[in-house]
Amino acid sequence: MTAAHPAADTPALELLRRIFGFDAFRGSQQAIIEHVAAGFDALVLMPTGGGKSLCYQIPALLRPGVGVVVSPLIALMQDQVDALKQNGVAAAFLNSSLDVQSARAIEQAARAGEVKLLYVAPERLVTERFLKLLEDLEAGPGLALFAIDEAHCVSQWGHDFRPEYLQLSTLHERHPRVPRIALTATADAATRQEMASRLGLTGARVFLSSFDRPNIRYTVVEKDNPRRQLLGFLAEHKSEAGIVYCLSRKKVEETAEWLRREGFNALPYHAGLDSETRAEHQRRFQRDEAVVMVATIAFGMGIDKPDVRFVAHLDLPKSIEAYYQETGRAGRDGEPAEAWMTYGLQDIALQRARIDESEAPPERKRLEAQKLNALLSYCEAPRCRRMVLLDYFGEQSAPCGNCDVCLNPPELFDGSVAAQKALSAAWRTGQRFGAAHLIDVLLGKVTDKVKTFGHDALPTFGVGTEHSEAEWRGIFRQLVAAGLMQADLAEYGALKLTEAARPVLKGEQTVQLRKPTKPKGKAARAKAKAVEGLLTKDQPLFDALRTWRLDKAREQGVPAYVILHDKTLRQLASLRPDDDAALAEISGLGAAKREHYGEELLELIAKWAE
After folding, report:
1. CB atoms within 10 A of CB 265
2. Residue 579 DSSP SS3
3. Where do the Helicase C-terminal domain residues begin and end (predicted)?
């Protein structure tokens, strides 16, 4: 990318190049930065990995005074501050990890104008002491802006709800002249409206970026021995960092233990662990290079690790928003990443039961059920996953060519007769049995259970031999996903007909079903995996640079990516700069990093060139 003529550089672009080492802004970054730097409020919805932090960091540097950033996670604050310091920016944080003396020293430095960006936990921000500090800052060095990160935490119906976020409207009431920017990667319209209303940002300009994450490959497989399936998926991700999501704490513990036995560096994370263990596991995930975190949804919000190469779901998430947010933790560095999920009938029944048994009001339950149905439609859709996902967020797109449906298109068939047989089997057996028993009836298997209930005498006994057991499992799953049947967890997963099944049974409505797709072989998957590789001759230098980076990170007690991103190392390995001017052309090497590491990098590269 060629640099613009210096005379054409805006102050924001000059900062981007000098401090952060990037040549140009992405997407709507520049428009957001200029809007906030001019003193206006903004509500920013941008996908994970879209570069949200620059949208408040640069305006804070452009405006006089201290930029105050509200961030809900201690580990994330620490890493953001470490990364800013690496770039030569005076940054600090105030949270419960600091002792009283350290916190006072930071408060004094802020009052003296020695801090440019101050990160604070929401719990601390609403204390009298911090509100007094804000008054002192406005009277002294000034307040550059308020940035509210992970702004969806204000939504009372979201799983990341933080009650302190409800009090953040006090910022505007006390400091009406200070611009505010609220940022999130959660996209649905209802949450957007709730954020604007609760944060007092109804008059703010809304910046809505594309929600497409083209570097992520989406795959959904039917659950059939999920551990074996997960192992097959992970075989292609040895020595890479990733997250495996499970629904329950027990399953998290068991899966992490099993993965360790299989040779993976796996750690559990859930709300039932004590805070020290959680913090330690999160620290290891952030700082080591090949940790697999097995977690409930308690893990993930604000995870800033850019080199997560995969996110796997062993259970169905609760909605498309949750799925989008969780899978969005992969590939934040823009490099190829994978989102893999396995799900079955039991998952649908569990999620439906969760909604039915919740104490939410009826209208909320209806909304939750609609969201679950949208997710099931995504799982069963015969068209490009990315198109279905983006369509949900109101964004049009073309087939991506990089999801399981595009790479291995499913065949559709007229499943009206199969649907009638399945529905009839459930009806004639009294709607008291799960899929396994109904399949035995359809296939004409004389099991003890079939004999006990006299189901071998039914007209539907043995009428389904044209389909295999696996095919029938897929048919029942699709009928439940389509809302023609529902699984009743209270009755051990018994399948019951819904009102929508009536026209199908009567032959008044046809049903299109997917044939099961055979998983691709390893060679085909490897060919399809779009990894931005290195030339063979550059790989040893890249490995040497990674070792150097890890040593530096350990010396300084920071995550490796805070020193330099993989993308920067790849450019160094392939372009092999030989002086400071050539180093300045490498993406992600700002002036402070060139000053700190330039000499060592040039020496290391020269040694390899010899």
Report:
1. 16
2. coil
3. 226-373
Q: Residue 395 corresponds to which tokens in the numbers above?
A: 């964004």
Secondary structure tally for the chain: helices H, strands E:
28, 17
Torsion of the alpha carbons at 577, 581, 586 and 587, rounded to the nearest 10: 170
Query: Which value, to the nearest 10 degrees, does the dihedral of the CA atoms of residues 72, 78, 81, 82 take?
Result: -160
- For residue 153, give both structure tokens: 């935490």
Residue type, 215: N
Task: Answer whether residue 283 shows pLDDT above 90.
Answer: no
| Residue 466 burial (10 A CB sphere; 0-12, 13-18, 19+) | exposed
Domain that holds residue 568: 536-609
Distance CA 2, CA 16 (A): 15
DSSP bridge partners of 27: none
Do residues 203 and 247 share a domain?
A: no
Is pLDDT at 123 greater than 80 in this prediction? Answer: yes
Decide if 212 contacts 47 (C-beta within 8 A): yes
Residues across the chain: 610
Report d(CA 445, CA 452) in Å as an integer. Answer: 13
Q: Which of 208, 242, 260 is at the close of a domain?
A: 208
576, HSE (Cβ side, Cα atoms, 13 Å): 16
CATH number of the domain enclosing 540: 1.10.150.80
Same domain, 166 and 25: yes
**DSSP assignment string, 82-150:** HHHHHTT--EEEESTTS-HHHHHHHHHHHHTT--SEEEE-HHHHTSHHHHHHHHHHHHTT-EEEEEESS
Question: What is the model's pTM?
Answer: 0.77
Q: Pick the last residue of a domain from 191, 208, 225.
A: 208
Residues 544-566: pLDDT tens digits?
Answer: 998 899 889 889 888 888 899 88
Q: Rounded to whole angstroms, how far apart are CA atoms 179 and 36?
A: 7
At 3, the pLDDT band (50, 70, 90 cuts) reads very low
Residue 361, pLDDT score: 87
Please give the helix or strand (H or E) that residue 449 lies within, else none: helix 448-452
Q: Using N-to-C axis directions, what is the helix angle for 469-481 and 345-357, rounded to 10°?
A: 30
Residue 133 banded pLDDT, cuts 50, 70, 90: very high
Average pLDDT value for residue range 200-215: 90
Contact 295, 527 (CB under 8 A): no
Residue 456 pLDDT grade (very low, low, confident, very high; cuts 50, 70, 90): very high
The answer, yes or no, to whether residue 529 has pLDDT greater than 70, is no
* Rounded Cα gap, residues 370 and 377, in angstroms: 11
Answer yes or no: is 521 within a domain: no
Q: Per residue in 298-317, pLDDT tens?
A: 786 656 788 899 999 999 99
SS3 of 29, please? helix
Average pLDDT for the chain? 88
Q: At what angle do helices 362-380 and 345-357 cross, to 10 degrees?
A: 170
Q: Residue 4: its pLDDT value, please?
A: 41
Same domain for 335 and 268? yes
- Render pLDDT for 66-98 as a digit per residue (tens, 0 to 9): 999 998 877 778 888 999 999 999 999 998 888
**Rounded Cα distance, 254 and 492, in Å:** 23
